Amino acid sequence: MLEMFQKTISKQVEFKGIGLHSGQESIVKILPAPENYGIIFIRTDLDKNNTIRASFENVSSAKLCTTIQNNFNVSISTIEHLLAAIYITGIDNALIEISASEVPIMDGSSKEFVETISAVGVTDQNSKRKYLKILKKFDFTEDKKFISIEPCDNSFKVDFELVYSNSVIGKQRNQINFSEKDLTNVYTSRTFCLFEDVEHIKKIGLAKGGSLDNAIVVKDNKILNSTGLRNNKEFVNHKILDLTGDFLLSGFRILGNVTCIQGGHSLSNLFLRSLLKDRSNYSIIDLEDSKTQKSYFKTSINKLVVNA
Predict the structure, then answer these.
(1) Rounded to whole angstroms, how far apart are CA atoms 177 and 149?
(2) Residues 6+ apart with CB under 8 A from 171
(3) What torsion, rounded to 10 degrees, do the Cα atoms 271, 164, 209, 9 define?
(4) Contact by Cβ (8 Å): 246, 158
(5) How far apart, in whole angstroms, are the C-alpha atoms of residue 283 and residue 302?
(6) Is the Cβ–Cβ distance between 103 and 96 less than 8 Å?
(7) d(CA 153, CA 133)
(8) Which whole number is the average pLDDT over 130-140?
(9) Is residue 13 a contact partner of residue 116, using CB atoms and an 8 Å limit?
(10) Which domains does the chain have, with CATH numbers?
(11) b/e for 166-178, b at 16 or more Cβ within 10 A?
């Protein structure tokens, strides 16, 4: 069911942990925000020029994580799991305070973010939620990576295929409809890497805070984590989680069917930049009234308000 009105978190929540790549400890606070505020980060360790809007246009790096940066070169990295949690819990407006340059990795998924937000709940606001409705099919290819989106009137769906030569990961594919109530397998799926890649990642100054407590590590035909996998498609489900967080950087919840092969943060950002450059690809809409909300799946486009 599509929600008609914007929402914010009911009260402040706080998270503490280390950054996956920086290894630095940080504290994140999510605070309620007014209507039409969007998602804005503020670096509380800095005195000025410290706010960054969560926008695809502010992405400065997508190497192994998503980093946003403002015009004063102030940045925040590894925002994707937190943004995915914000999407899944239905938040439109929030101020996110962070005490360092990287969002804590927690357990490598969005589990703690989603569960904590869900525990305090969200509050309806008076302004209507805007949706980004895809109007026609749009494709984007980079090397052997592919992503496309097609119109869908009533939901956001992701069909993701992941292909690794490693026998444990192998070829995985999953289809997720984000209108479904139970997205547990998506938001609890952890980030992962191959053991042979760890040394290279650390040589380039990343993964300083990585461990078996916050990532799945695969060596040859074995998972090194003693607890194994949380679900049988955890690898591809985590990729879907990443894509969800990255797509929220569009500034809207998207109505469309996404197909992705071998995608990642960089592909998602390049895709959004290309898609949103051409206004003929989409419209910004809201739901007309509560009657429309209840019967939305059976109605035609004339039940939508289109803001050209």
Answers:
(1) 14
(2) 161, 162, 163, 164
(3) 50
(4) no
(5) 13
(6) no
(7) 7
(8) 98
(9) yes
(10) 5-128 (3.30.230.20), 131-307 (3.30.1700.10)
(11) eebbeebebebeb
**Is 265 part of the annotated catalytic residue set?**
yes
pLDDT tens for residues 108-121?
Answer: 999 999 999 999 99
- Whether residue 255 contacts residue 156, with contact meaning beta carbons closer than 8 Å, is answered with yes
* Residue whose tokens read 């070829």: 171
> Cα separations (Å) of 4 from 27, 47, 149, 282?
32, 37, 23, 19
Per residue in 136-172, pLDDT (tens digit) is: 999 999 998 999 999 998 999 999 999 999 999 999 9
Q: What is the DSSP string of 51-70?
A: EEE--GGGEEE-SSS-EEE-
Out of 21, 81, 238, 265, which one is annotated catalytic? 265
10 Å CB burial of residue 288 (0-12, 13-18, 19+) is middle
Distance of alpha carbon 49 from the chain centroid = 25
The reported pLDDT for the residue numbered 181 is 80
Higher per-residue pLDDT: 104 or 204? 104
8 A C-beta contact, residue 301 and residue 91: no
Residue 195 has pLDDT above 80, yes or no: yes
Token look-up 């949690």 returns 85
Alpha-carbon distance 279 to 245, whole Å?
A: 22
Q: Kindly report the pTM of this predicted structure.
A: 0.92
Helix/strand/coil for 135: coil
Q: Token digits for 158? A: 């992701």
